Amino acid sequence: MTDLHVVDATAAHTDQLVTVIHHAFANRRTLNPPSTALSETAASVGAAIASYGGLLATIDGVPAGGMLFDQDGDVLGLRRVSVDPRFQGRGVASALVGCAEDVARRRGLRRVRLSARTELPETIEFWRRRGYSVVEQREVDVVFAKAMPLELTVPTAEEMREIGSSLAGQLRAGDVLVLSGDLGAGKTTFTQGLGAGLKVRGSITSPTFVISRVHPSLAGGPALVHVDAYRVGGVAELDDLDLDASLDEAVTVVEWGHGLAETLAPDRLDIVLTRGDDDTDETRELRITPVGPRWAGAGLNELVVVGQG
Ligand SMILES: Nc1ncnc2c1ncn2[C@@H]1O[C@H](COP(=O)(O)OP(=O)(O)O)[C@@H](O)[C@H]1O
Ligand SMILES: [Mg+2]
Q1: pLDDT band (50, 70, 90) for residue 35
Q2: Is 111 in a helix, a strand, or coil?
Q3: How far is the CA of 157 from the centre of ligand 1 (A)?
Q4: Exposure string (b/e) for 113-137, b if CB count within 10 Å is 16 or more?
Q5: In terms of domain of life, where is this protein from (predicted)?
Q6: Does CATH number 3.40.50.300 belong to domain 150-298?
Q7: Is the peptide bond before 34 cis (omega within 30 degrees of 0)?
Q8: Which of 41, 112, 209, 213 has its CA 20 to 30 A from that of 299?
Q9: Whether the predicted pLDDT of 89 surpasses 80
Q10: Three-state secondary-structure class, residue 272
Q11: What is the dihedral of CA 149, 153, 157, 158, to 10 degrees?
Q12: CA atoms of 280 and 200, how far apart (whole Å)
């Protein structure tokens, strides 16, 4: 058993981080222009830790990886993401990224961003696999970003509608939302709020079988296309609905029983609603995971509930 630990870097970790960064970057093939990571010193790394912090990973007490942070608005920047070559293939990089995303959430930041050299395809692939999207192409590198998920506890149906309505303010034509959760979890209730926020015509109800309904806007905005696919067995049946035709001009919401959402759209909000085992408890947990470049670029903002609360 090895013991992999990631800690928030403090001034006391400065020398260990400098060493890890040097080991990691010295091992990479020579880039043109070369990375400036090798010129990091105790002074520069110490200053970075003091300003925005960082992470240090250790395996059995030996420094194995690390990174530095910076912060710009609601974005957490990752810099000098490093794994000592002696510890490659041990999950150090993944652990570091997971912890960095936790740091972003703890700090109330909406996105994580970093740059990666285009000369390093395996690095590019690493970030893609972790849900990062290219938001900018530059001369020698690309900028990757990922929007952080939002988690909310929703005590009542009314507040569920308000959250849907609040989210509507962040949506535009072409957006796709995939709602997952058991029957009665609140998917339709959430969609009703969305419809109210988008100011669309017609009441949003819970049809009994696969059906897609278009609710035109009463305010010159995008229509809401509401699909209830709870009982749809697979993607083929969904394809029959020919959603692609309206996807660009509307906000499309698919109520979907289970987690097959991946195939629906590369840019989407995956929304999972869960209720507790206790039937007398009306509380729902809501988790919104933004996926794809659309959200990596914009981020998902906090949702506000103004009502009775
Ligand atoms: N916190 C809550 N959020 C959403 N719905 C709730 C909540 N508490 C109670 N409800 C009720 O639970 C039911 C949810 O039904 P519905 O939205 O049709 O679920 P689904 O579409 O997921 O099957 C509604 O009757 C709603 O009034
Ligand atoms: Mg429903």
Answers
A1: confident
A2: strand
A3: 6
A4: bbbbbbeeeebbebbeeebbbbbee
A5: Bacteria
A6: yes
A7: no
A8: 213
A9: yes
A10: strand
A11: -90
A12: 32
Place of tokens 């700090």: 107
Instruction: Take atom 2 of ligand 1 and give the residue whose Cα is closest.
Output: 157
Asked if 54 and 69 count as a contact pair (C-beta separation under 8 A), the reply is: yes
How far, in Å, CA of 92 to CA of 156, rounded? 41
Contact 9, 55 (CB under 8 A): yes
- One-letter identity of residue 267: D
**4-147 fold:** Aminopeptidase (3.40.630)
Q: Give residue 212's pLDDT.
A: 85
Q: What is the pLDDT of residue 308?
A: 46
Take residue 20 and report the two structure tokens written for it: 């890890």
User: Is the CB of residue 183 below 6 angstroms from any atom belonging to ligand 1?
Assistant: yes
Given a contact cutoff of 8 angstroms between Cβ atoms, the answer to whether 144 and 114 are in contact is yes
**Residue-range domain boundaries for the chain:** 4-147, 150-298
**pLDDT tens digits, one per residue of 137-147:** 999 999 999 99
Ligand 1 and 185: CB distance under 6 A: yes
**Rounded distance from Cα 110 to ligand 1 centre (Å):** 28
What pLDDT digit, counting tens, does each position of 119-171 carry? 999 999 999 999 999 999 999 999 999 999 999 999 999 999 999 999 999 99
Whether the predicted pLDDT of 253 surpasses 90 = yes
pLDDT at 261 over 70: no
Assess whether the C-beta atom of 189 lies below 6 angstroms from ligand 1.
Answer: yes
Tell which residue, 20, 46, 25, 47, has the closest CA to residue 36: 25
